[in-house]
Structures are given as structure tokens and as C-alpha cells.
Amino acid sequence: MKIALCQTTVHKDWHKNLRNAERVIADAVKSKADMVVLPEMFICPYNKKAISAAAQPEGGEAWQAMSEAAAKNHVYLVAGSIPESADGHIYSTAYTFDREGRQIGKYRKMHMFDIDVEGGQYYSESSVITAGDEVCVVETEFGPIGVAICYDVRFPELFRLLAKRGAKAVVMPASFNRTTGPAHWELLMRARALDQEMYVLGCAAAGDLAGSYNGWGHSIAVDPWGSIMEELGEGPGMLMAAVDFAKADEVRSQIPVLQQLRTDIYEVCEKTVG
Ligand SMILES: NC(=O)CC(=O)C(=O)O
After folding, report:
1. Which of 21, 42, 97, 179 is the most buried (most CB within 10 A)?
2. How far apart are CA 60 and CA 64, in angstroms?
């Protein structure tokens, strides 16, 4: 399976970002992508004002455009995250569409990026976004694929749940920053890949020093052995990862940690069922 991570630049005008997304989706399909992934908040700058202004319900203009782009290009699409308005709240939502443009998955970012690093990054995501509470795995003809978003990568428990639901690859719209990016991004992506012996594919927004958020870019594909397959720099670009589900089976049979869990002593269990 070929999965394209499209590292786009995020402009102020969300319509412009949608048109750009349509272009990169078509380009990825010309390069034979089976699935295209877009960055976290690819339609608006990653700040409270822009997120509130671009928020729209499921089925709204951005949803429609992405569903049509998936159908037109006959490709699976994980439409980054889009601010979804529902019940008086805003969620950071990753809709997944199949090759006919039907929604086959909906994931609302579950862990809020509320941090305050001395001399570095401050962010209070929960002041604008409400956390979701459902785990998401989408079915494709290649196998089941988990979806998570950015800060979620810091929570191994979620990845264990995704593995328990059968995922051998997890795709992650993301947008790390210039404080935590150089320090943690690669390490976290490799750690999650290795501890579940699965592919972890992070699609980040391109860095933009003039923007309101110090994005780090560096979209990355990591294989089930924990090796980096490819990593982009800070600028816009596309990373095409060849994902072979049999490789996850191979690593899992050679080092069978998932069968060696001491569930008599500890267990990660899901309390809500999506
Ligand atoms: N943007 C995020 O959600 C997370 C992030 O930048 C970090 O964990 O660091």
C-alpha cells in the first residue's frame, strides 16, 4: 500500500488551503498513492481565532470538498484535521473517506495539547478544542489502519488500543513545533512504532516562520522495526511510504512482545466503545 503524506503550507485563507489540498491529493495520486494524508489543521493556522473562524459541521464545505477529492481521485483520504463544530463545541476531527468519497472513519483528537515549556512553546488547545473520546480504526482492502492526531503520540495507551483493534499502521495528521519538534518528534514516532511493532506515519504541516505557530514540519514514516523510512524537512513536500502489512507480522513473530504481555499483572482496556 502506498501512503502519501502531504506536508502543506497553511495559509490564512481556508478556501485557499482547501484548493491547495485538492491539488496535492491529485499530485499524490499521479504518483500512485492508495491513501493520502493531510496535516493537522491543514485548513487554518493553528491558533484559537483561526480555528474558531474555520470551524464547520460534518458535511460542511470542507467535508464536501474532501469527500469529492477522494472520489474524483479514487483514493483513500485522511483529511488531516478540520475544526468540526458540533453541539456548541469545536473538535479537531480527522475524517477518513474511501475511494468513492464515503466517510469510513471519524476521529476526534483525544489528548489536548496543553503545554507550557519554559522559554519555549506555550499552547492551550483545550481553550478552543474539546477532546474526543472514541478510538478510530478504518478498514481498507490492505488491512485496518488506525488514526491518531499529533499530541496523541505521547500516549502509548492509545496506540496499544489501536494495536488491539488490529491496526498494523497508524496515520497521524500532526503539527509539532520548533521547541518540541527537534527534541521529541522523531523519538516519539519511533517509540510508538516499536512498542506496537507497527508503521507510524506522521503528516505534519510545513514550517512557517512568518505564521502564528512555529511549525516544525518533518513528516515522517517509521516501520514496525522502528526504523525511519523517510523524513521530510521543514518546507512543503510529499513523502510516499510503501507500507507492507506482512512486515508488521514478521516483526511481531520474531519479537512477540504483543503476545508476551503480562495481562495477569497489567492491562490496557478501553472504557468507552466507539
Ligand atoms: N501540536 C500537538 O498537538 C503536539 C505537539 O506539538 C507536541 O506534543 O509537542
Report:
1. 42
2. 6
pLDDT tens for residues 202-219?
A: 999 998 766 778 889 999
Q: Does the pLDDT of residue 264 top 60, yes or no?
A: yes
Single-letter residue type at 200: V
What's residue 273's pLDDT? 55
Q: Which of 83, 101, 100 is nearest to 92 (CA)?
A: 83
Q: In this predicted structure, what is the pLDDT of residue 215?
A: 87
Q: Whose CA is nearest to atom 9 of ligand 1?
A: 180
Roughly how many angstroms between the first and final C-alpha of the chain, as a whole number?
Answer: 26
CB 216 within 8 A of CB 234: yes
Pocket test for ligand 1, best of 114, 115, 124, 186 (most atoms within 8 A of CB): 115
> What span, in angstroms and rounded, lies between the C-alpha atoms of 55 and 233?
29
Select which of 6, 40, 125, 247 is catalytic.
40
Q: Is 16 an active-site residue?
A: no
The DSSP output letter for 257 is G
Specify the DSSP element, H or E, that contains 65: helix 61-73
Q: How far apart are CA 161 and CA 106, in angstroms?
A: 16
Beta pairing partners, 77: 36, 97
- All three cell numbers of 175, joined, read 503539527
* Residue type, position 166, single letter: G
The torsion angles phi and psi of 93, rounded to 5 degrees, stand at -115, 130
| pLDDT tens digits, 134-181 | 999 999 999 999 999 999 999 999 999 999 999 999 999 999 999 999
Task: Give me ligand 1 centre to Cα 185, in Å.
Answer: 9
Q: What CATH class is the domain 2-254?
A: alpha beta
Burial class (CB in 10 A: 0-12, 13-18, 19+), 262: exposed
